[in-house]
Amino acid sequence: MSSIDSSVLTSIPAFKADFLDSCFSANVLTFGTYTLKSGRRSPYFFNAGSFHDADLLYAIATAYAHTIISFLADNPGLPRPDVIFGPAYKGIPLACCTLLELRRIDRPKWGKVKYSFNRKEKKDHGEGGGIVGAGLRDTNVLVIDDVITAGTAMRETIELVKQEGGKIVGFVVAVDRMEKMPGSNDDDGVPRPSAMGQIRKEYGLPTASIVTLDDLIELLREKGDETDMERLKDYRSRYLASD
């Protein structure tokens, strides 16, 4: 799909509209039929790995940064993050570029915040260990990642940060798919929470996203793409999470 005119997106903030424009122009966000790991056939696909040039990396960093600023403003009781953590592998560049943009926006608040990420396999030579960048012990950690579907990676990150002595204060992702967690029979009609909703319930951790499935549907409505809009609405109706 070609680039969109972000000026037509009157119902969402400018940084979200600019982010979606970048997603379209780089084919990071595409529409069609895609089989997910869960076996579901999704009418859209988001691939954060396609943000691989400087302009696109800047676009996603800007979107994450403004989302984090809004997230913290909406949750004034949260401790300020000491560390931005990006789970390997896609979360690594996201954490680094987002922290740089946060520092550009407000250096006094973000200039001394650190970044960190994990190794898939612990290193047994040199400095050793499974963490690269800032150590996590006795720190407040904000985790950023691309998309959460089943929540497995989220739980692994929670346990990893706990083992390293840190405390997670929240999760921020690029896209909230708003769909219920997979079950043995996805067509059973049984309400289930989303992976993010389940994490909020189990661990009491607040979450945020740059955009949601609702934003994508609104985008398609405002640009007059009835076909893809109806396909996303059908998908939402079928798999909408109970939270």
Brief overview, please?
The protein is an alpha/beta fold. The protein is built from 8 helices and 8 strands, in the order αββαβααβββαβαβαα. Helices cover 40% and strands 23% of the residues.
Overview of this protein structure:
- This protein has 243 residues and is α/β, with parallel strands linked by helices.
- It has 8 helices and 8 strands.
- It has helices at 14-25, 54-74, 91-105, 107-110, 152-163, 195-203, 213-222, 226-239, and strands spanning 29-35, 41-46, 83-86, 114-123, 129-133, 140-147, 167-176, 207-212.
- The strands form 2 sheets. Strands 5-4-3-6-7-8 form a 6-stranded mixed sheet. A two-stranded antiparallel sheet has the order 1-2.
- Strand 7, helix 6 (195-203) and strand 8 (207-212) form a beta-alpha-beta unit.
- Helix 1 (14-25) packs antiparallel against helix 2 and helix 7 runs antiparallel to helix 8 (226-239).
- The longest helix has 21 residues, at 54-74.
- It starts with 13 loop residues before the first helix and ends with a helix.
Main attributes of the structure:
two-stranded antiparallel sheet, 8 strands, alpha/beta
Beta-strand segment tally: 8
* Helix-strand makeup class: alpha/beta
Q: Indicate the low-confidence ranges by residue numbers.
A: none
- Seen as an oligomer or otherwise, the chain set is single chain
Rg to the nearest angstrom?
18 Å
Number of helices: 8
The span between the termini is 31 Å
Average residue-wise pLDDT: 88
Q: Name the helix and strand elements from N-terminus to C-terminus, one letter apiece.
A: HEEHEHHEEEHEHEHH
| Helical residues, percent | 25-40%
Shape: globular
Strand content: 15-25%
